[in-house]
Write the structure tokens for this entry.
Amino acid sequence: DAKTTQPPSMDCAEGRAANLPCNHSTISGNEYVYWYRQIHSQGPQYIIHGLKNNETNEMASLIITEDRKSSTLILPHATLRDTAVYYCIVRATYAGNMLTFGGGTRLMVKP
Amino acid sequence: GAGVSQSPRYKVAKRGQDVALRCDPISGHVSLFWYQQALGQGPEFLTYFQNEAQLDKSGLPSDRFFAERPEGSVSTLKIQRTQQEDSAVYLCASSLQTGSSYNEQFFGPGTRLTVL
């Protein structure tokens, strides 16, 4: 699976949008972009995934550039409960394909 | 509904002891994964089961680590002769699908193992 690069940490004010970037310049055509987050002392939680179109669900939006070499996860109205480590993962989807976590971005939402 | 559960949540072992960590996946989930997470790092893959078959154990760090899922449901990760470097959180994840793009893995809360 392709390697991803994320900033190690970011701050965001409560109620504002949090924009978390991810670079994946070596992504291949059959690989999706997945985002998971891990709140302290919990297991990782799936947020969203996409191939090349922008995606939105009740948790977040995912914006993937046209060349697919980077993406941005957007939390539209960050709350204190969104404080977590956010992992951007690029992987092909087949049964048994494990998640390869990098260092992630530690997002701190501040009041 | 019930998510993935793991037990015990915390385990303290003396160096050299054997430990067994249990994972109860979501009912009906075919795929089961074990990950190891060292302090301050992201989880790292250990092994993968599809039903009762262990299809990938490439991430197991040594032959002291052994995993099983005999009936295709509950899984146990066993570590023999524990060492201090085995101290970590051990995470279990399960997923339903078998190859679609919606390949969400559901994680349990993990077992924090401390080896003294």
